[in-house]
Design goal:
The chain is low in regular secondary structure. 11% of the residues lie in helices and 6% in strands. 37% of the residues are buried.
Length: 216
């Protein structure tokens, strides 16, 4: 009789361990696999909280105001409506990401790849987008007031209804960028949208560097 309890405990432990292993496998194993098997090494523990899950094949990114996400792969990520004000996303890959309505006020996005981003209504006031690739980006209704767009590639981007007042577009590529009469452009811009007969139009750059309004 005295040996009955230890034997019973041993049997219960033996049955519990395989169940625990199965549970670990169902929940993605250790911490390195929490993001679809791709580990994110941040400089600060707080950055882990910025990421959701890739379990459905889509990266859902929670806002992290003022955080450092420089060089991170956020391509095709869901960042819509999140707060990234004053965050550092320089050199980040945001290709085809959804940034609709997100707040990037004062954020650093210099050199970021933002090709085909969906950023309608995004807040980018005072953001540093120098050298960023915004080809075919949807920036309709976005607030880019005072933004640094020096050397940015805006070819075929949609800037209808966007606010560019005070933005620096020095050496930016605006070829076939879509504007409309609502687009607020900075002082000295070669075209005045409100004076263009067409309701919406695309910027055309001739071989001599001149600007004109044409069809999209």
């Amino acid at each position: 009789m005295p040996r009955t309890v230890p034997i019973l405990v041993s049997v219960l432990l033996a049955l519990a361990l395989p169940a625990q292993a199965d549970d670990d496998r169902r929940h993605g194993g250790d911490d390195d696999d929490r993001h679809g098997g791709q580990r994110h090494d941040f400089d600060d523990d707080d950055f882990d909280d910025a990421f959701g899950s890739r379990s459905t094949g889509v990266l859902v990114v929670q806002g992290c105001r003022g955080c450092n996400l420089a060089g991170q792969d956020l391509s095709r990520g869901q960042l819509a409506g999140q707060d990234f004000a004053y965050a550092n996303l320089s050199g980040a890959d945001l290709e085809r990401a959804n940034l609709a309505g997100a707040n990037f006020e004062g954020a650093t996005l210099a050199g970021a790849d933002m090709e085909r981003v969906q950023a309608g209504g995004a807040h980018l006031r005072g953001a540093n987008l120098a050298g960023a690739n915004l080809e075919r980006a949807d920036l309709s209704g976005a607030d880019l007031g005072g933004a640094n767009l020096v050397g940015a590639n805006l070819e075929r981007a949609n800037l209808t209804g966007a606010n560019l007042f005070g933005a620096d577009l020095t050496n930016a590529n605006l070829d076939r960028t879509a504007l409309d009469r609502r687009t607020a452009v900075p002082a000295g811009f070669p075209l005045v949208p409100s004076a263009i007969p067409q309701l919406s139009f695309c910027v055309r750059i001739d071989p001599n560097g001149g600007f004109s309004a044409g069809g999209c």
